[in-house]
Amino acid sequence: MAKIDPAKIWSLNHRLLMSVISSVATDITALGLETKELFVLAEVDEHPYPAELAAALSLPKPSVTLYVKRLEAAGFLRREIDTADLRRHRLQLTSAGRKVMQQGTTMLSEAFGERLGRLSAAQQAELRALLEKML
Questions:
Q1: Is 42 helix (H, G, I), strand (E, B) or coil?
Q2: Per-residue pLDDT tens for 12-50?
Q3: Residue 45 forms part of a structural domain
Q4: Which of 15, 37, 88, 112 lies 20 to 30 angstroms, CA to CA, from 81?
Q5: Please, are residues 71 and 37 in contact by the beta-carbon 8 Å criterion?
Q6: CB of 88 within 8 A of CB of 49?
Q7: 3 state SS of 81
Q8: How many structural domains comprise the chain?
């Protein structure tokens, strides 16, 4: 049996994800977002502080700051002083931000679902189990 090359598996995974993102990039842009901004919006509820958001998305803090400023200017996000710690800003999706986030994630989900549809139900379940095990 040939030795499995982890770099090859990583590369295939990366190519798959980038293919899905590329397939909907134009539609996401039509919502007024860059793809990375969509990912920021999708994580705000779980990670409402900019530093947490940067860590969760594996993005540099200055990049997250730039995305937050653009999303705030577009009316998709707002910053509020955290009443528990007045030194911190808590991020909050606006109703417009929640709407475009849901539309964008639906686009990504449908595009990924098309790829998953190439697998049987058993293969999809196995893929999910394997990914969870790797995490």
A1: helix
A2: 999 999 999 999 999 999 999 999 999 999 999 999 999
A3: yes
A4: 37
A5: yes
A6: yes
A7: strand
A8: 1
* Rg, Å, the chain Cα set: 18
Amino acid occupying residue 61: K
Residue 49 in contact with residue 91, Cβ under 8 Å?
yes
- The tokens describing 66, both together, are 């730039």
Chain-centre distance for alpha carbon 99: 15
H or E element at residue 85:
strand 85-93
Q: Does 75 fall in a domain?
A: yes
Report helix, strand or coil for 87. Answer: strand
- Cβ 125 vs Cβ 45: under 8 Å: no
pLDDT tens sequence across 49-80: 999 999 999 999 999 999 999 999 999 999 99
Q: Is residue 72 a contact partner of residue 94, using CB atoms and an 8 Å limit?
A: no
Whether residue 1 is contained in a domain is answered as no
- Using an 8 Å Cβ cutoff, are 102 and 86 in contact? no
Separation CA 36–CA 84 (nearest Å): 29
Q: What is the CATH number of the domain that holds 57?
A: 1.10.10.10
Quote the domain boundaries for residue 128: 6-134
